[in-house]
Design goal:
The chain is α+β, with helices and mostly antiparallel strands. The chain contains 17 helices and 29 strands. The protein has an eight-stranded antiparallel beta sheet with strand order 8-7-9-10-21-20-18-19, with helices on both faces.
C-alpha cells in the first residue's frame, strides 16, 4: 500500500508491504529524492524493569549520497553527532506514547537509503517511525508527526531545504499528535517569544494533515495490538506502606539540599522495608520488596505534586517562579584563553574558551556535504557531578544533545570571521548537577567568551521551566530541579538574549501540551532569563579589551592564487620551514588568503616578511635589488625575487658600448635593476640603466635597430636561442640542476682551451 500528499515544496509518500516483511512494522518513506527505510521490532518477552527499554537508531549510509566511506576498511563509520542527534530527537517524540505498563524491548531502526542533498531526512524518519509503529502490533498511542519550520524574509517555510536552512531566521523541529504538541527543538536569531509560538502553531496545522495520511494507512493495514501484562499492586501492601511512609515523605518537601533530601528519603525506604519484614501478616508477601520501592516512589511523586498544586511549595521550599541563588566568577584558570565558573543552586558549570586559527575549525561530514564550523561547543557530564560511580566512556547522546543545544543558543551572537578572525571552541565541564546543566552551560560559556575577549553581540542566558499538570490544574515551574524534572510533566529549556530567543528544547512526559500553555511557559522563561542576564552582567558585561597573552595573534594577508604552490613548496617544505623558523602556524586557503598565528607579534611579523618574499609578484617599472646568478654572452640573469630571475640585456648595462657582461657585473654581485617588460610566459626584462635614473621613456625597449639602444635585434635573437637551448625556469631547484649540467660544459671547454692555447683556466662561475 502507498499513500501520498504534498508537504511543503515536495511530495511525501509512505509505502508498506514491499520490503522488510519479517519486521513487526516497516515503511518506505520518500520525500523528494530522499528515501528512508524505518523498521520496528518488539521482543515478546517482557522485562521486569523500572524503565521502558526503547532503542532508536538513525543511520545515514554513505551510498545514499553517492560516496564511498573515507574511513579505514571503507565500511560505514559509527554514527556521527548529527545522526545521534536525530535519533535522540525521534526518541523524545515517541517515548511518551507507549503505555507505561508495556516493558518489552522495542528497537526502531531508521536507515537513510538515498539522499538528494537537498532535503534533510529527519522529518521523513520520524513520520516513518510513527507509521511503522502504528501499523504494527506493538502497543503505541499514535500516530505522531513532525515538520521543520523555517522563515526567510518574514515568510514561513515548511520543511526547508539545506540551503534554505542556512539562510533561515528561525529553525524549529516540531512534533505532535492531532490534538497537542509533543516536542520542540531548534533556535532563532533572537526571535521574539510570540513569533516562536506562532511558528509552533503553524507547524501543528501541518502535523494534523500528516497524521490524517497515516490514519488512512492504519484504517486499512493495522494489526491487532498485542496483549501485555499490567501488574497491579497488592492492596494490603500498598495500604501498609502508605500508612507508614506518607507523613514522613511529606516532611522532605522544603529541603533545599539535594543530597540531604536523598539521604533522608533513602533512610525512610530502609526503615519501611525493615518494618514490613518484621511485621509479617500472612496477607503481605515478603518477597515484594521491589513493589514496596515502587510504592514509595509513587508516594514521593504524589506528595511533591500536591504540594506544588495546592500550596505552591516546591521540593526545595521555593515558590513556583523563584530562581535559585546565582554566582559567577571569571579568569579562574591562569593559562587558558578565557574561563568562567557559573553556579545556579546545585548546578555548576566550568566553561573554558580556547581561540585558534582556521586550521582548528571543526569539520563535519553529512549527507549535505562537508561543513566547516568556526565555533563549536563540547559538553562533558562526569559521574561525580551527581555523586555517582559510572564507567567513563565517550560522549553519549545526552552529552552530544546538551552540547548541541548550548551551541545553538550561542551561535547567533558569535561575531563573524570578518569581525573576529578566530576559531572559537568552548568546553563545559559540569562539576555539579541538579537539573538544567545545559542552560548553566549557556550562561557559563557567555562569561568565558567575554573573559577571552570575544566581542559577543549580546550576553545569552538560559533557563529551564517545568510543568505539573493534574486534570484542569496546572502549574509552570521556573528553574526546575532534577526531582521536578523526573517527577514532572515537561522540561522546557529556553535560551536567548534580552532581545529574543536563540534556542529552545521541549520534552514532555504526558500526551501533549497546548500552544496556550507553551505561550505562558515561554513568557515566564523570558522574565527569568532577563533576571539571570542582569546577575551575569554584574560579573562581566563586556569583553576584555585585550586577548590573553597565551592566545594566538592572527594576521591575514592575500597572495596571488598562482603563488600558493610557491609558498607551499615541494612537499610543503617551504611553508614548513617558515613555520619552524618563525615559530608560527600558517594556514593557506584556496583563494590566496594566508593566516599567520603566533603568541608573539614579532614572530608573526617575521613570518609575514618571509611569505611576502616568497610570493611577491614582479611589477613593471619597479626597482629591485637582486643577485647576479649567471652571465651569458648577451647579458646577465639577476634573481630579483626568491626563485624569480630576470634578464639584463647587455644593451641595458651602460650608456655606452658594453663588450661583455662581466665587464659590468660578476656572479654573486648585488645590483639594483628596474623591470622593463614581462611577457606572457612570465619572462622578465630588466634594466641597469633605468635603475640609475634614466627615465623609461628614454630607454629603447623596441626591436628597431635604427632607434638606438645597442643592438636589440641580436639581443632578442640571442635570448631566444639561449632559451631554446637552455629552457628558462623560475624554480631555484631546476636552475641549480641546470647549473651543475652547464658547469660540466664549462669544464670541458676550459680543458680544450688549455690544450690549444696553453692559457690558464678561467673559471666562469655559475652558468
Amino acid at each position: 500500500m502507498k499513500v501520498e500528499m504534498q508537504l511543503g515544496s515536495e511530495n511525501l509518500s509512505i509505502e508498506l508491504g514491499k520490503v522488510a516483511k519479517q519486521a513487526d512494522g516497516a515503511v518506505w518513506v520518500q520525500y523528494g529524492g530522499t528515501v528512508v527505510l524505518v523498521t520496528v521490532v518488539a521482543d515478546y518477552r517482557e522485562n521486569d524493569l523500572d524503565f521502558f527499554p526503547l532503542t532508536v537508531d538513525y543511520r545515514e549510509r554513505s551510498y545514499a549520497g553517492g560516496r564511498i566511506p573515507t574511513v579505514y576498511g571503507r565500511r560505514e563509520p559509527r554514527p556521527g553527532s548529527s545522526e545521534q542527534l536525530v535519533a535522540r530527537l525521534i526518541d523524545h517524540c515517541i517515548r511518551p506514547l507507549f503505555p507505561k505498563e508495556f516493558k518489552a524491548e522495542v528497537q526502531v531502526l531508521c536507515t537513510v537509503l538515498s539522499s538528494d542533498g537537498i532535503h534533510p531526512a529527519d522529518v521523513p524518519a520520524l513520520i516513518g517511525t510513527s507509521a511503522a509503529l502504528s501499523v504494527s502490533d506493538i502497543p503505541f498511542n499514535g500516530p505522531v508527526a513532525a515538520v521543520t519550520m523555517g522563515k526567510i524574509d518574514g515568510k514561513l517555510i515548511v520543511n526547508p531545504t539545506y540551503e534554505e536552512l542556512h539562510a533561515s531566521e528561525i529553525e524549529l523541529f516540531v512534533s505532535g499528535t492531532s490534538t497537542a504538541v509533543m516536542s520542540v527543538e531548534g533556535g532563532g536569531h533572537e526571535t521574539p517569544e510570540d513569533e516562536v509560538i506562532d511558528t509552533i502553531i503553524a507547524a501543528h496545522e501541518e502535523i494534523k494533515e500528516i497524521i490524517k495520511l497515516q490514519e488512512g494507512i492504519v484504517a486499512v493495514c493495522s494489526q491487532t495490538k498485542r496483549e501485555y501484562e499490567s501488574k497491579a499492586v497488592e492492596d494490603t501492601l500498598n495500604t501498609r506502606i502508605r500508612d507508614l511512609a506518607t507523613a514522613r515523605i511529606r516532611e522532605s518537601i522544603g529541603m533545599a539540599d539535594k543530597q540531604l533530601r536523598e539521604d533522608y528519603l533513602e533512610q525512610i525506604q530502609t526503615d519501611i522495608l525493615s518494618e514490613i519484614q518484621e511485621d509479617t501478616p500472612e496477607e503481605i508477601d515478603l518477597s515484594a520488596e521491589k513493589e514496596a520501592r515502587s510504592i514509595l516512589s509513587d508516594i514521593e511523586k504524589e506528595e511533591m505534586r500536591q504540594a506544588i498544586l495546592v500550596e505552591g511549595k516546591r521540593v526545595d521550599g521555593r515558590g513556583v517562579t523563584d530562581i535559585r541563588s546565582i554566582s559567577g566568577e571569571v579568569a579562574l584558570l591562569p593559562r587558558t584563553h578565557g574561563s568562567a565558573l557559573f553556579t545556579r543552586g546545585q548546578t555548576q558549570a566550568l566553561c573554558v574558551t580556547t581561540l585558534g586559527t582556521s586550521g582548528d575549525e571543526d569539520v563535519q561530514r553529512g549527507l549535505d556535504g562537508e561543513i566547516r564550523r568556526g565555533f563549536f561547543l563540547h559538553y562533558n557530564f562526569p559521574p561525580y557531578s551527581t555523586g555517582e560511580v559510572k564507567r567513563m566512556m565517550g560522549p553519549g547522546r545526552r552529552e552530544i544533545g546538551h552540547g548541541a543545544l548550548a551551541q545553538k543558543a550561542l551561535e547567533p551572537v558569535i561575531p563573524t570571521k570578518d569581525e573576529f578572525n578566530y576559531t572559537v571552541r568552548i568546553v563545559s565541564e559540569i562539576l555539579e548537577s541538579n537539573a538544567s546543566s545545559s542552560m548553566a552551560t549557556v550562561c557559563g560559556a557567555t562569561l568565558a567568551l567575554l573573559d577571552a575577549g570575544v566581542p559577543l553581540k549580546r550576553p545569552v542566558a538560559g533557563i529551564g521551566v517545568g510543568l505539573i499538570k493534574e486534570g484542569e490544574r496546572e502549574v509552570i515551574l521556573t528553574d526546575m530541579l532534577g526531582t521536578e524534572d523526573f517527577l514532572g510533566d515537561m522540561d522546557f529549556k529556553v535560551a536567548g538574549t534580552t532581545e529574543g530567543i536563540t534556542a529552545v528544547q521541549m520534552d514532555i512526559k504526558i500526551d501533549g501540551v497546548t500552544p496556550e500553555l507553551m505561550r505562558r511557559a515561554i513568557h515566564q522563561a523570558r522574565e527569568a532569563r532577563i533576571a539571570v542576564i542582569e546577575q551575569m552582567n554584574a560579573v562581566m558585561s563586556t569583553p576584555r579589551a585585550e586577548l590573553s597573552p597565551y592566545a594566538p595573534r592572527i594576521f591575514s594577508l592575500k597572495i596571488a592564487p598562482q603563488k600558493i604552490k610557491d609558498l607551499i613548496g615541494p612537499r610543503g617544505k617551504t611553508v614548513q620551514g617558515i613555520q619552524e623558523e618563525t615559530n608560527t602556524t600558517i594556514n593557506i586557503d584556496d583563494d590566496g588568503t594566508v593566516e599567520i598565528a603566533s603568541t608573539s607579534a614579532d614572530d608573526v611579523k617575521r613570518a609575514e616578511e618571509k611569505i611576502r618574499e616568497v610570493t611577491a609578484m614582479p611589477e613593471i617599472g619597479k626597482e629591485y635589488t637582486g643577485k647576479v646568478v649567471r652571465t651569458a654572452s648577451f647579458g646577465a640573469f639577476v634573481e630579483i625575487l626568491p626563485g624569480k630571475d630576470g634578464l639584463v640585456h647587455i644593451s641595458q648595462m651602460g650608456d655606452g658600448y658594453v663588450r661583455r657582461a662581466e665587464d659590468v657585473m660578476q656572479v654573486g654581485d648585488e645590483v639594483t635593476v628596474r623591470i622593463l617588460t614581462i611577457d606572457e610566459q612570465g619572462r622578465v626584462d630588466l634594466s641597469l640603466i633605468a635603475a640609475k635614473g634614466v627615465p623609461l621613456a628614454e630607454l629603447d625597449t623596441s626591436s628597431d635597430p635604427d632607434e638606438g639602444g645597442g643592438s636589440p635585434e641580436p639581443r632578442d635573437q640571442n635570448r631566444s636561442n639561449y632559451r631554446e637551448n637552455r629552457p628558462y625556469r623560475d624554480s631555484r631547484d631546476n636552475r641549480d640542476s641546470r647549473d651543475r649540467r652547464n658547469n660540466r660544459y664549462d669544464n670541458r671547454d676550459n680543458s680544450r682551451d688549455s690544450r690549444n692555447r696553453r692559457s690558464p683556466r678561467i673559471p666562469k662561475g655559475r652558468f
